[in-house]
């Protein structure tokens, strides 16, 4: 290799230095030639290009408005649903409990087993098509109003505002040297963050470990190792995601922000700035005639940027970072009210409406997603309504194929497994059919307790018939004493000696 090759003189020394130092500060700047690679000037000083740039911290401003009120109402409902449901008991059992060791999901008085996985599949498909249809119709409103990342970020920002003050005070506080007041304010903020994060972790883990027992175990320091791990993990995850990562999750980590653009069209409802009405921007007095000054309605106050949780300027057009939270709409409407202008400079609208064209609310893509969603919901309801809380499995005794008990009778032995997926006991009647004069020797009735699997050994006797096949199909059926439940059947084979 040529001794003055730019690759050797510029790139490789930087890479070697990065590998030796192995620190973010080292690898964030690597020497790279910006000049012509054909000059081979070994004496030229390489220019440093910053390969990593720390994002600026976003300081959001307080605001009020109808969409903020709507988001608060929705967030309050979701919080009550999340934090309150795990404390509800039905029939002596937690209303929602995902009992992984027992492989049982208890949901409002109904127990679901791994065999009910088809219901979970339908539910996930419904959620997917629901999100698709919502995105085509109204963009990322899911992100702005109901996404857990957004909801908890708003809560953490509230805690930040309560402990450190409003936007300007927080900015000033971060620039100040450490003092007693700053230490106390920062400590109060992080304490409140950790309290919210731990409460979230406790509630989430409480859906997998009975929450009442978990709380007692925490106070008595008797929590198992896995319980401690998951409590710590979800506490740190909530603390980090909502306290530090915040908009970085929405912008860089969430895949929804990436594929949403392929689902948008000119009729999708998005948060947008009306350039025809707002430009030219510029400050003015309230009493001034801005039209005669050649100005639009936008006073260029940048309040819409200051309230945005992702730090974008909606006036620059539609951006994938926008989560449709409508914070900029509320902020702009407040300014329009103060100036005496019409609201809606920033509003929920469509590209077609901004261009002066008609918005098509019913369109093929939306109809397709909505139709698929409707079909999936119907199938889910049908599967749920026809779900039988009993399950039957029949196993032949493979050690003894058959046993001749008399000259004219033969016996086969089976093990019946009856699973009761209900919340109440069932008295089960057992029947067998398929061969003439086939009968069960022994018990034909068993009681299966809620959430349990009962095994019963059944002896089935049939007469020996000359010329009959060595193996013949038989059908077992079980029926419950509870009215309205259909009988469940399972097939097996009955074997006889050859004649």
From TrEMBL:
GO CC entries: plasma membrane
Keyword Transport tagged: yes
Residues that span the membrane, as ranges: 70-90, 117-138, 192-211, 223-245, 366-385
SUPFAM superfamilies, per the entry: 4Fe-4S ferredoxins (SSF54862)
Superkingdom, natural source: Bacteria
InterPro entries listed in its UniProt record: 4Fe4S_Fe-S-bd, 4Fe4S_Fe_S_CS, Cyt_c_oxidase_cbb3_FixG, Electron_Trans/Redox, FixG_C, Helical_ferredxn, Ig-like_fold
Keywords, alphabetical: 4Fe-4S, Electron transport, Iron, Iron-sulfur, Membrane, Metal-binding, Transmembrane, Transmembrane helix, Transport
Domain called 4Fe-4S ferredoxin-type: residue spans: 289-317
An example molecular function term from Gene Ontology annotations: metal ion binding
The name this protein goes by in its record: (Fe-S)-binding protein
Source species: Endozoicomonas elysicola
Taxonomic lineage of the native organism: Bacteria, Pseudomonadati, Pseudomonadota, Gammaproteobacteria, Oceanospirillales
